[in-house]
Design brief:
The protein is α/β, with parallel strands linked by helices. It has 2 domains: about 1-35, no CATH class; about 45-189, Glutaredoxin, CATH 3.40.30. It has helices spanning about 1-20, 90-105, 125-130, 145-150, 180-189, and strands spanning about 45, 60, 65-70, 80-85, 110-115, 135-140, 155-160, 165-175. A 6-stranded mixed beta sheet has the order 1-8-7-4-5-6. A two-stranded antiparallel ribbon has the order 2-3. Strand 4 (about 80-85), helix 2 and strand 5 (about 110-115) form a beta-alpha-beta unit. It is found in: Cell envelope. This is TlpA family protein disulfide reductase. InterPro entries: Redoxin, Thioredoxin-like_sf, Thioredoxin_CS, Thioredoxin_domain, Thioredoxin_ResA/DsbE_sf.
């Protein structure tokens, strides 16, 4: 009796592990029989608890590798996105940030600031993504990450033309979607 129970339990364990393979077709199934898994919608958490707070004074690196601070961008609204190459939701939202930068023109500056270490080459992400409106800012010491204090990537913070925080979104976002369009309406109209 025990060998039969052990055999049944072993079969259940193997079947359970096999089904955790992410919905890929099994050897005896056709790809058409298994629906393709759609990535979950990026719905970051809106946070207005820091509204009115001044931009952090911490420096990061501009595309030429020179130190810059957010104060250099005062005079127009600035959307600051902290991301990293190893962060799936970060990379996934980058094309929509590129779309916002294209639509915004001179009305809004979109800064994407990599939190990768200095050893990580972010150029392949740009090449693969084909970003035409974003620039490669870097924060290898994670100064902005510590200043924003969310503990999560991606984090995106909107500052008004005077350098005061309007809101932040913690987590990924479809920046071309209806929710983002509502959040950004007064800034890119």
């Amino acid at each position: 009796m025990r060998p039969l129970i052990a055999l049944l339990l072993g079969s259940l364990l193997i079947a359970g592990c096999d089904r955790q393979s992410g919905g890929q077709p099994q050897a005896n199934e056709s790809a058409a029989a298994v629906p393709e898994a759609k990535a979950p919608e990026l719905t970051g958490k809106l946070d207005i608890s820091q509204r009115g707070k001044a931009m952090p004074a911490d420096s990061f690196l501009d595309p030429a590798g020179k130190p810059v601070t957010l104060a250099a961008f005062k005079g127009k609204p600035v959307l600051v996105n902290l991301w990293a190459t190893w962060c799936g939701p970060c990379v996934r939202e980058m094309p929509t940030l590129d779309g916002i930068a294209a639509r915004a023109g001179d009305k809004l500056k979109v800064l994407t600031v990599s939190q990768d270490t200095a050893k990580v080459d972010i150029a392949p992400t740009w090449t693969k993504g084909g970003f035409k409106h974003l620039e490669r800012y870097r924060d290898p010491d994670n100064k902005l990450g510590f200043a924003f204090n969310t503990g999560m990537l991606p984090t995106t913070v909107l500052y008004d033309k005077d350098g005061k925080e309007v809101w932040r979104v913690v987590g990924g976002m479809d920046w071309n979607g209806p929710r983002a369009n509502t959040l950004l309406a007064e800034f890119i109209g």
